[in-house]
Amino acid sequence: MSLFWRIFSLNAAVLTVAALVLLFAPVTVSTTARLAEALIILAGTVLTLIANAAMLRVGLAPLARLTRVMTTIDLLRPGTRLAARGHGEIAQLITTFNAMLDRLETERASSAGRALSAQEAERHRIAQELHDEIGQTLTAVLLDLKRVAKASPEPVRDQLLQVQESTRNSLDEIRRIARRLRPGVLEELGLPSALRALAGEFTTAGMAVRRQVASDLPVLPKEVELVVYRVAQESLTNAARHSAAQHVDLVLARKDDGVQLCVRDDGRGLRGAPEGAGIRGMRERALLVGADLTVESGATGGTAVQLVVAA
């Protein structure tokens, strides 16, 4: 039965019952209604409206549930579906909405995968150029400064040595940026070594990172290792930039046939702030490999990021 006929039938039933009550009830209405008769008619009207509202609420309840789901749906948290309860057009509308979500989540995952693949390729290219071109140029500048400093008088030599030191620091910074853009240790030595190197890098930046990497980790595909590494990198970056954390625990453990990454800091926590581009980027990466990502404030403060990758 269509929605129109359902509503029409409900209203017809209510009005029919009201008419039968007026026909067979021992109540009469004078030409000029008395107060008691007016009160009886008013009470009957109120009861009729209440019955009609109750029946319509029950009949349209699935639409209200659908509206709530539509206003809270988030494609970065897939799997939210509404049970197709109801009759006729309402059940068909809910089924169509669930099918639409399936298509949107599939298309979102596909487009995000292409975007992140392009992003990784661009990072690789930029890191290669930083290392091969700018890095080599600065190395040549260092050698020239060293040669000129040897042939310069003492006052000029000291200034050249200062310039040489600044250039060396710039070269080290460029190499550090290149390593962040393209984690060569991940490709050469694997995920555990890459996470240890990442923790050491943030520890030297003024934040103590306590790392714990299990020794019985399963063999993971390259794309899964990259997702785990990028989530750990983004979590440590957020802790250093936004949380004002002093200590961070980075734990990578085996979970069934997969792995579980947990990064927990002692900083300010989320404090109800909306998710930024960094967290949403982590969610998109997690979707690519079918992982579950949770970001929440810890029980004693700070922020906890947990990534679970099933086999």
UniProtKB/TrEMBL annotation:
CDD domains: HAMP, HATPase_UhpB-NarQ-NarX-like. GO terms for molecular function: kinase activity. Residues 57-109 form the HAMP domain. Its EC number is 2.7.13.3. Keywords: ATP-binding, Kinase, Membrane, Nucleotide-binding, Phosphoprotein, Transferase, Transmembrane, Transmembrane helix, Two-component regulatory system. It comes from the Bacteria. Coiled coil: none annotated. PROSITE patterns: HAMP. The chain crosses the membrane at residues 39-60. The keyword Plastid does not apply. It is found in: Membrane. InterPro entries: HAMP_dom (IPR003660), HATPase_C_sf (IPR036890), HATPase_dom (IPR003594), Sensor_HK_TwoCompSys (IPR050482), Sig_transdc_His_kin_sub3_dim/P (IPR011712). It catalyses: ATP + protein L-histidine = ADP + protein N-phospho-L-histidine. This is histidine kinase. It comes from Paractinoplanes pyxinae. The lineage of its organism: Bacteria, Bacillati, Actinomycetota, Actinomycetes, Micromonosporales.
